Amino acid sequence: MNAGSRQDATDTGGDELTRKRRVAGQDPAKRRQIIEGARRVFIEMGFDAASMNDITRAAGVSKGTIYVYFANKEELFEALIEEERQTIFANMYEALERGHGVRETLTAYGIALALKITSPTVLKAQRTVIAICERMPELGVRFYERGPKRGHDKLAAYLKRLVDAGELAISDIDLAAYQFADLCMTGIFRQCLFGYRTETPTREEIERNVASAVTVFLAAYGTSR
Amino acid sequence: MNAGSRQDATDTGGDELTRKRRVAGQDPAKRRQIIEGARRVFIEMGFDAASMNDITRAAGVSKGTIYVYFANKEELFEALIEEERQTIFANMYEALERGHGVRETLTAYGIALALKITSPTVLKAQRTVIAICERMPELGVRFYERGPKRGHDKLAAYLKRLVDAGELAISDIDLAAYQFADLCMTGIFRQCLFGYRTETPTREEIERNVASAVTVFLAAYGTSR
Amino acid sequence: MNAGSRQDATDTGGDELTRKRRVAGQDPAKRRQIIEGARRVFIEMGFDAASMNDITRAAGVSKGTIYVYFANKEELFEALIEEERQTIFANMYEALERGHGVRETLTAYGIALALKITSPTVLKAQRTVIAICERMPELGVRFYERGPKRGHDKLAAYLKRLVDAGELAISDIDLAAYQFADLCMTGIFRQCLFGYRTETPTREEIERNVASAVTVFLAAYGTSR
Amino acid sequence: MNAGSRQDATDTGGDELTRKRRVAGQDPAKRRQIIEGARRVFIEMGFDAASMNDITRAAGVSKGTIYVYFANKEELFEALIEEERQTIFANMYEALERGHGVRETLTAYGIALALKITSPTVLKAQRTVIAICERMPELGVRFYERGPKRGHDKLAAYLKRLVDAGELAISDIDLAAYQFADLCMTGIFRQCLFGYRTETPTREEIERNVASAVTVFLAAYGTSR
DNA sequence: GATGAATGAGGGTTCATTCAT
DNA sequence: TATGAATGAACCCTCATTCAT
Description:
4 copies of one chain form a homotetramer. By secondary structure, the first copy, chain A, is an all-alpha fold. Chain A has helices at residues 28-49, 52-59, 63-69, 73-89, 102-117, 120-132, 137-146, 148-164, 173-184, 188-193, 203-221.
């Protein structure tokens, strides 16, 4: 479908000094500018409702230029989602590495997770991906794999350490990690996704949710220690 | 220019010569036929990517006929989603009313819930709604309200009965109900939504998930009884 | 173009008592009802912008019935214009036959003419005919011939009598008749036709116009008598 | 959704990334080409019966291009009528400024006027405007105001000069100007408008008409001089 | 290399006309 | 006979993509 893509990896070409004249579509600043415009338009309107003209306008570049950097609308969209995913899931896992107590750590991570996933921008991005993932399955897979999945793996690894340390008693760590994450955003994630909630959850609400999540989780998996 | 030939409130009215109120689009079989075609197309492709021509073809009726039954693409879509929601969430709550023991009841309900929500059709429907709910907020609200919300309320009522009977000890019943539901589909819901899983979860997997959910839930909220 | 027309003349069939069951499209009341609906819609919106549905609604009959009485939209339109013309130009020429003095008679006729031709309904009808007369030339010809032309002929005949009586001295009576008619509506006809005037001319204005018309006309064609 | 790419006041504006104000539709030759095609189609068929596809074909440009230069069918039509009016009424008033005798001047002007207004193209244009002026009142007003009205004003000014010079005795100059103009095209204007005449009036006929008009006019308003 | 004017297939919608009831 | 649901061609308009400048 996307043969001939110009920017397969996120290669920004390390040898920009060797040749003054760059090959078409190799100016990272321009690329960023386009992606930035695309972000505003795609995330706000979704893939179909967004027009290349809108993006042209939002990015402040000409139509032709976009087509130099991206083969077509789809590829531009894919590149944007890739970027967006990286932005969203950056700096999410710090809480798991700070070495505080179990309850504190889980609480901090849970809050960060729930805040992130219910923030307006992230919600829109998720909706945009969900909307398209039937038509562009790769895109959904990639997004989940390098986004939520990564978080899950980190959490599972953390739980594994706790189990090994005797602080938790979990038979299926993978499952437990999913359980904790879902408990943290219980009730709110789907409500936000479907637009049933028009307001972003307050920090207080999220804290309450996560506090209960930690309690339930520890009631199930905690040890006497 | 000539709207108002449909059966809604905007019907012409006011013209003194209009003998009978024209009420077009009354044949339920035709209506069903159209909706059925719309389902195939909308659910498969989403609102934007679906064309009225596609639907025309899928439904086996002429374009004009669709516009006798539905004012425009949006109304057809809304009618379809309404239908779809009713179909999906029918017969979901029986498990809660069969009067078996707590563990059995929760397990039965959890399995029904998880099976339903991860079935291919229901997933596609959910994606379709999520995709559009920014542009048609009412639609998302309605879908959630009369779908998942209804299930949540039934479950909360059931939990309330158990608390009153001393079988559970829950301080925030509403929250607990969300927790149980999310525990039942933990891990799989998002994976399905983003298309990370291409295969529908097996019944075995769901049973495992729900069994764990019940255990965790009862560990947190069960009483000695 | 209109072969197969069902109602060539305005025959209302004199033998309606001979057979109880009428041939399709022969009920004069129904015909009138349809034409009445068509009038409202066609005259208000013009041929193209009017839809058969509008007419259906305005007439209070079914689509099928209209097509029993009239072969198609065009024929219905033609029949309506025919009717309209008859209505408009009825009782226009009485002033010419009352036997008063020249000045009085010309004034009375001129006023009647100018009032008629600038009345909102008549203006709309004229616009409707003018709009279509390129596409349906017959219709314009017929309308003019049996409408304005008829008035012109009556006026010319009247002037002829005056010339014969020595009350006027006119070399080209035909031309003089046109001149008088145009003098009566001078300035206002075109202004109304183009919608430059949004208000119908007042009777006072018309009287002034006609008074001047008579004066000019008599200055040119009057004799000492 | 993407309006605002035209050169009118609704231009996007406000998007901070829009570098240069995009101003599409700037090539006068192309614009002319489109208007030329539109002329052929609109003037021949009228607003409603003309399709944008017809115009596309007649102009030899693509559909999209038309929409770059004109926001929609209506705007294209308005632009065309504007153009048409300018073309029609250019060089109409020279006769009034050549400084010949009254009779000669009036005759020359009257002939020019009558020739113009009954020429096939001008007639069609007038019909087209009259047809639409109920639905687009501004358009009719403008056409009359800047077309016929302008001629009328020039004529009235000319008559005023003659009155001041004692060559004519007119109490209501405005009215007299209308009278002269209408006398010049007496009989033929309406006949042409309704298509009663299929042939354009001959120059001879018009000369006869105008000669009579001048005679009548001077009989009414002339002085001994 | 960058531009944006041009393209034309395809979008949603309307409506004159037909025909089974 | 009268009805109005059904038809599908044709309507106006949009937009992803190309290519001359």
